[in-house]
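Hi R.,

As promised, here are both runs. First protein below:
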Amino acid sequence: FKATHFFTMDFASPTRALISLQKRKPAVSENAVEAAKKLLEKDTSAEDYLDAIATLMHDETERWETLSVSLLLATKILVDAAVNQTSSAVYIDGPRVPMENASSTETKTECTFSSEQLSKVATWLHQASLKYLEHNEPRVRTFVAKAVGAHATWSIGIDNPQHEEERQAVHNQIVKSIQDHIEEGRDSPEKHSKSSTGALDDTTGWRALETNWQCLACWIASLGDKYYETVGLQLDQLLENAEHSSTVHLNRHVRAASIAVLEQLTISAGSNEKYWHLLETGSLRKTIVKVLKAGLGDNWSQVRMAASVLNRVFWKTIKETCQFSNDNLKQLYPVLIPRMCLNRFYLAQGVKLYSHQTWKLVFPESGIEVVAQSIAPIVRYYVQMCDADNHVVREAACQAVAELAGKIGMDEVHYTALQPHVPILLQALIMCFHDESWPVRDEACLACGTFCRAYPEECRPELETLWTRWTEQLTDQIWSVRADAAVALGDACQAYGEEFFHRLMKFIDENLPAAQNQPAMTLEDYKALQNDMAAHTDSQLYSCGSLAPKLKKNSNKSGAGRIGCSNCTINRDKQPWEATDGCLYLIRELVDECSYDNSTLPALSDDILLPLLRQVADVCRVSHFPQGDDLRATLWRQLPTMMEAIGKQRCKRLYLEVFMDLLMRNIESRTASAISKHAAVSCAQALSTLVGPNIFRGRVYDDYQREALDRALRERQMQQERSPREQGTQFSPFEPPGLLDNLDSHQFSKLTPGLPADMMNHPGVGAGASF
């Protein structure tokens, strides 16, 4: 058996496309390879260059690769020769974030072409556009769309009746094809879907409809405001078809492509005052608002991204270019503002960061005032999204609701604007507490804590329900849920004062020793349980990208059923040690929150705190089950925060001795897990910095432990020197630049997860990229 290697075609530039064409397996024809070599030669004449392109375009093997390369090269010739270079870029690149300040590094073609030769190339592209508009390969159809735009961009700058007729013919063909496709789709959408080559569902392009919209977008971008002077243009019919394709059509690629057309129509209308009425009160504005209402809430991130691009272009055009009155702009607030706000928390990072940037551009100073003015429609939309079928939308909705409490509720000027809506928002969050998706429950938990802190009296009627949910979350199977439940309980403690504090202390007293009741289990037994073949064989597979049974709604659980990201009927029983782990997070939160100057409770006294932390140290010595290392890792992660809140002097005098023995035993242990040892060394380094290296080292009385500490700190220092991660320069290959910045900043919170510093420091935003 001999494997066949398929070299990927690279269309990043003409040069790279030609090189990859020669390496393609199975190989293209010899004539195509020779033509590609000729095109790469620097001294190729203009005539030979065009002959080589013609060879690729009319290659008898009809391989899509050769056709795509020929369209790319011919398109570039016209683009380089175009007189009118002011057309805007068309966003047809799928789910990627559009380049805001794109600059091409590809040089122009070295050959100099005569007007007759350019006219020949334009005719080639015109013929290819008509012939390959419904090609089976989507990449070919994308190049056809760009070819249409290049033809229009070049020909609009010259006086040539033939090319003017070609432009008009292409436009008529595109518009007619769009109408035919939509009519056929409305009559029999199921048949229409199955007629697509290789398409068995609604997730791929439907014949030429997507390409037609892309072609039209490129065509409009080339003509600019002159498009509205096109002979035979029926704008109302076009807008009706665009609205249908953007909001009703089942295929996400079609929806995104039709949104790109509306974007170009907006830019074109804004460039000429003669057509501003279309954006002020006309049919174009009405269509755009309807499309944005659907597109900014689309279930596919690709469509949501395309709608976000249109949304930014629309606002910049009417606000900066046309400079419509504030009264005119405010008419858009009830529909667009809620969706713009929510998308800043959407799970897809491209949509999230792009939406944050859009908000900054549209409302650089007055964001919180705009939200306060639109609070009623925002609340209605958020409540609706808390009950959405898509679990990532519900998660984003909970974050957005928490932001309202954190920004509006904590603002002295606008505090009363949200006050009447607190009960309905709280009910929506309580509903999400029952969600089958744990990230939704997690965000609902945090949001409820934020609301209690901002509006304690309005939330008091639901306090018992919230207490039950918070304490359930504090003993959850997932560590991050436990940690965030502690944050919520800390907020509630600040809201309800001493009575709630004593209730928390009673809960801690009852649940902190729970780890001592954990059933004994050896590490070997634990590994055998994790690697049990019977438990992992013949089971249903689940994927975030599939339409597997994960999408069912489970009505057996309490609360409303929800679409989750896994099989929510499978659930592991809670373990006793997890209750102890949750108490560690809660103790950290109480110590930390009560240490601030604006705390409603006094700092914990030594009479309360010292016995409590001694009990913590005793409980965390458990070693009769493997998860004891996880419990100690949690302790070492929380201890530096607690000691900083307690203060250097109290730490040295009373509390350092409580944990030194357990900490050093963990560092020197040969059987402890790598996670707990790493957490222990990090804790030792933080405490050493707090109290002073010499003082900390002096508290270690055993020589062997002192050597183990010195060795561990040296290794950690060497690791940090080898891989520095300075603030603002962190990078993840899987996320947009800047996503990992500011994770250690005091400004970082659940309301501003991993946003770049320039967004967090935006004027009028405060501590977080909010309104």
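And here is the second one, sequence first, then its structure tokens:
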Amino acid sequence: DEDEDDGDSEDDMDPAARARLSQARAAAALEEEMSADERRESVKARVGATCQGVMEDPEGRWLDLREVCKLCEDRDGEVARLAALSMVLVFKDVCPGYRIRPPTPKELAMKVSKETQKLRDFEAGLLKMYGNFVRVLMRCGGGKGKSRSQRGKGGPDSATALRCLCVLLESLPHFNYRTDVLSALVPHLSHVDSAAADAVAGSIANAIKADMQGDTTLEALHMVAQLVKQNRCCCHPVALSPFLEIRFDEGILALEAQKAQEVLSRKQNRKKRADEREVIRKARAEKEKRKAEKERMKSFGHRDDSEEEEEDLEAQLERDMGEASGRMDNAQKKKMQSRMLEATFEMYFRVLKNAAGANPARGLPLMTPALVGLGKFTHLISVTFMADLMEVFRQLLAGDALTPEQKARCLLTACEVLSGHGEALQVDTGEFHRQLYAMLGQPSSGTTSGWGGGFAGDGSGDADRGTLRIRALQRFLGGYSHVDQGRVAAFAKRLAGAALSAEPGEAVGALGVSRQLLAAYPRARCLLENERVGTGVFNPHVDDPESAVGLAAVLWDLALLRHHYHPAVAAAADEVARMPLAGAVPPALGSHAPAELARLHSTTRGDFRPAIPPPKVGKRARTSVLDRQTSRGGEANVLTPGEELARIIAADGSADDKRDRLAPVVAALRRHFSETREFGVNAGLRAEAARLRRMSIKARERAEERRAAEAAKKAKKAEKAKRAVAIGGAGEEVRAKKSKKKVKA
């Protein structure tokens, strides 16, 4: 069929296009006789010339792309790679900025001008070649494995095909076959290959940023949600990161989210449902009536569908004008935004439900990005779902499925939800305070785990567990004006204790939060006294700040932290310790928040702030040859008697047996000590040889200096003699002149 189509199209070609096609086929026939390297160079030149010509005159030379399309399925991988990359660049430049609609049979039967027919042929041919190219890329770089019939076909490698698909999605999200491109890219988000997943997530994010209508975003949302559902939330963490770039119209959705659900009685609900059913029944009856009337008129031979055709044409014209203008009316925009928001939160809630279920995904890779997304779009969550969301958060925090990092992120998200229009809810934060207090009693690892180092979709790529805990403390304790004094004192005491074993960044942040608490609640400054002031005894082993009796504690931890090896921690501890016991507290040094201080001074990335000065260059300590050998592990086996000696000594038996058994021990010890003595003698000889070598070098240097000095003296004497001879010759001339003058006189 393809050959017949090519033959038909060749008959319709103009002479110039037919000549170019013949030239390309002749060049391809000659390339079959070349070596692999020569063929690649020839193909590279031919593909470059063809693509350049098509980009100069797309409508006149688009048929030249057929040979390049065939090269995309070449057996030689390098040739297929070059052809695929060239085709991507051509399609980026040539494809129109609208979606090509195939003409209807009625439109094909109409007579049009030559320019219109040329444009139709160009669009139809371009769309066909683009579809074939996309199918080749899907076969070579799709997320699914190749079938048995596809394994023998040629084409670019999977990395090149994936790259081409990503470029097509970013450059042509409005063009045809967008669904096919997305269906080939989205399965890569379920693989462990971080490079492929990052590339796909980046291309989807860029397409979402450039999407003005919302249809590309909605389609990607549905595909990723289906992938998450099929894999039971076991996908790469970056699978949800592109949807943080969605631009929701807060003017429309925020008002809808803040609206409370209408509360109706049982009788009103029945009446409302009955009215809705009646409206639907009348619409169906009217439709059936029009259909029956139309059939009755057809039986009499009457056919009057001009009104319907006019309505269809008007609707088509309005739709085309809307697509061309790129604008949407408020009703369509609201509907699209609502569908996107519904799909986004459905995906996030599915991840939370999976984590709180009986069989959660291993490692919960999507938990962190889901919490980040909920925290970003929390102002768009409907008030009716917030109570259920808080209950899910409580279940997650009470269970053991979450890691400490995920628990900190969950607490931070819960605080962000409650700080928005969720303040209207009567939610008891005591459970969240208990979880945060218990988390402070655990050591901080300062690392992330999971798929390739965690997720950084909130813009804090280096936000470790300590920074998350500090941010959660700031939001929960600093965001509420009324907190129990005993609870505040317990948190201040546990923060100081946690700073003792925390890494420097988290320690600085913990001391900053502790200072804020003591400054906001003056009664809690009794912890700075040298002796216990409050009633009762502080219990550090209880994970409930209410029953820990925090007002009876003493911040003796500050005395140790003032001598911390990190200067920032020592300065922060000294600042807390010098706080006045009553009255106003001066502002803290610097304008950074505790979370920002924790991020700046964190050492989890391998740096140190302030920087450590380089060590002074001095003389290296002298070590013996034996110590240097053993420190490098070269002769360590000579200095150890071995396991045989220990086994013989530990054995029991008679005196003769012991003597017989100790014979090899004596031999081993004798050999050991003799070798050790030889090592000592050898070290002494080497030291003596080194000393003699140094002495000979110094003697040689002194002899050279002496010879240089003697040569300088000789040169100086020769210079003086030469000067004296010159002075004597001048005197003789003067005396001769005087004698001549006397004779003349």
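A quick note on the second one: DSSP finds 29 helices and no strands in the chain. Let me know what you think.

Best,
J.
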